[in-house]
Amino acid sequence: MHTSVAIIGAGFAGIGAAIRLRDRGIDDFAIFERDDRVGGTWRDNTYPGAACDIPSRLYSYSFAPNPEWSHTYSRSAEILDYIRSMVDDSGIGPHIRFGHTVSGLEYSADEGLWTITFDEGHEQVRARAVVLASGPLANASFPDIPGIEDYQGHKIHSARWDHDYDFTGKKVAVVGTGASAVQIVPELVKQAASVKVFQRTPGWVLPRADVRTGEATKRLYRSVPGAQRLARSLWFWGHETVALGVVWNTPLTRVVEAVSKFHLRSQVADPWLRRQLTPDFAAGCKRLLMTSDYYPALQRPNCTLVTWPIARIAERGIRTVEGVEHQFDCIVFATGFDVSKNGTPIPITGLDGRDLAAEWGRGAFAYRSVAVSGYPNLFFTFGPNSGPGHSSALVYMEAQIDYITDAITQLLDHGWKALDVRAEAQERYNRDIQRRLTSTTWNSGCQSWYLTEDGFNATMYPGFATQYVGQLRRVELRDYRILVHQGARTPAAAAIQ
C-alpha cells in the first residue's frame, strides 16, 4: 500500500491532522490506529470521575467549535463524543485503519519514502510523509514496585479501568495522588467500605469552579459563533496570565500558593492533615491539581491518607517502610503513563541507518518540537518540549498541526523528495530551549515526570502559549534541506539549496 501521508494514532492529534490536511485539499492519507475506536487517551481513561482540568472552550480546536459543552470542565465521555463528532462531521472515517499497531518506521533515502510495519502482520505501507500522532499519554503499565506480581487481590490501572469490578464493601488502596487520583478517590469513597490513599508527595491543589452550561448560553453559541470565539479568547488570555506564576518562580507564584493554601485551610480542619497535604516545592514545579472534591473525600470516615513510603507489594496488600502491612481486596494504581522522555515508543530508522531511540537515549529533542534532523518528512505532534504548564494542550497541538500540514502541503505541491531539518538549526533551537528552561519552576529542584532521571527536561516549553504558537506560524524553509528527485529542478528547491 502507498499513501502520501500516514498518520499514526486516531486521538485528538491524529484526527485534527487529518481534518487540516483535508482542509488543504490533501485527501491521500491514512490513519493507523491500534485500537478499534478513535479517541486516544479519552477512549482509554474511563475511570470514575474522569474529566479535563482545562475549560472546555479552550480544550477543543478553534476550527471545530462545540457550542454543546455541558459544563465548564468536560467529562471524559463528552470529550470522546466530541472527537467522534469531528470524525463524522469531517468525513474522514473511511481513512482510518483500525487494528493497526505500528511496530516500526524506516526511511529510504533513495526513494524518499517511509516504510511502516505493523505488529498484526498487515501489509507494509509506504508513505511520503508520516505524522506521529500517538501522543505522550498513550501507553500505561503497572509501576515497577517490588512484589507487584505477588499480589493476590485485584489490580486496576487508572488508564485501563475495570468497569466489571464491584467496589461495594471492598477494602481499596489508591497508589498515587496526581491528576487521575484526585478524581478517582472522591468516587471510590462513595462505594468502597474503606479507601487508603498512598501519597508519595502532595501537590498544589486549586479549586475547580465547574458550572453547568445553561441552554440559553448554548443557544447563543449556536446562533452567534463569535460569542464562543470570544469566550475561548478570554479563557486563553486568562491562562496566559497564570504562566507568570507557574512557569517561572515569581511573586505571582506566591499568589498561586496562597490561593492553594486558602483552599486547603477552608476544606481541611485538622492541622496535622493539612501539614501532610502541603507541598515543599514551588507551585508549578509539578502539575497543578484542579479539584474541589479531593480534600473532602480524604476526610470521609472510610478514607485514610498514608504518607509512609511503600516498601513492597505483598500477597495480600501493601507493606510500608515502617513495617506495617495494609491488606486490600483491590489496589488502584493511579501512577500515570509511560511517557517517552528518552528513547522512542517504536523503532524509527532515518537517514544512513540512524536510530532515533539511540539519539534520544539521554533525552528527547527536536526542532520546534515537530521535526528531527536526519529523519526527513517525519513530523511529531506533542513532540519534545511542547508541554504547556499553564494552558491547554489543544492550543499547542493545533499550532503543531497547522505547521505540519503547511510543511506537507509544500512538500507535495512542489513534488520535493524530502524536507530535512538542518542540524545547525535544530541545535540552535534546543540550546535556546534548555537555556530558558533553567529559570523555570520545572527545573527548580523537585522530581516530576517532566524530567529524566538525570534532570534533563525534554517535556515542557519554557514560555507563553503565544510564544509557542508564534514560532509555528510559518515553515522557515531556510532551516530545512530540500531534497529533490534525481533530474528534477524546481525553482523553489534550487533557491533554497
**CATH architecture call of the largest domain:** 3-Layer(bba) Sandwich
Biggest β-sheet description? 8 strands, mixed
Low-confidence stretches: 491-497
Secondary-structure-derived class: alpha/beta
- Radius of gyration, in Å, reads 24 Å
By CATH, the superfamily of the largest domain comes out as FAD/NAD(P)-binding domain
CATH topology of the largest domain: FAD/NAD(P)-binding domain
What's the pLDDT, averaged over the residues?
Answer: 93
Architecture overview:
With 497 residues, the protein is α/β, with parallel strands linked by helices. The chain has 14 helices and 20 strands. It folds into two domains: 2-139 and 339-496, FAD/NAD(P)-binding domain (3-Layer(bba) Sandwich), CATH 3.50.50; 148-204 and 248-333, FAD/NAD(P)-binding domain (3-Layer(bba) Sandwich), CATH 3.50.50.60. The protein has helices spanning 12-23, 41-44, 76-90, 181-188, 215-223, 225-246, 251-267, 271-276, 294-298, 356-359, 393-414, 423-437, 465-471, 491-496; strands spanning 2-8, 29-33, 96-98, 102-108, 113-118, 125-132, 154-157, 171-175, 194-198, 205-206, 289-290, 303-306, 310-313, 317-320, 325-327, 330-333, 348-349, 378-380, 418-421, 480-483. The strands form five sheets. Strands 1, 2, 3, 4, 5, 6, 17 and 18 form an eight-stranded mixed sheet that branches. A hairpin with a 4-residue loop joins strand 4 (102-108) and strand 5. Helix 1 (12-23) packs across helix 11 (393-414). The longest helix is centred in the middle third of the chain and has 22 residues, at 225-246. It is globular. The chain starts with a strand and ends with a helix. Mean pLDDT is 93; it is low at 491-497.
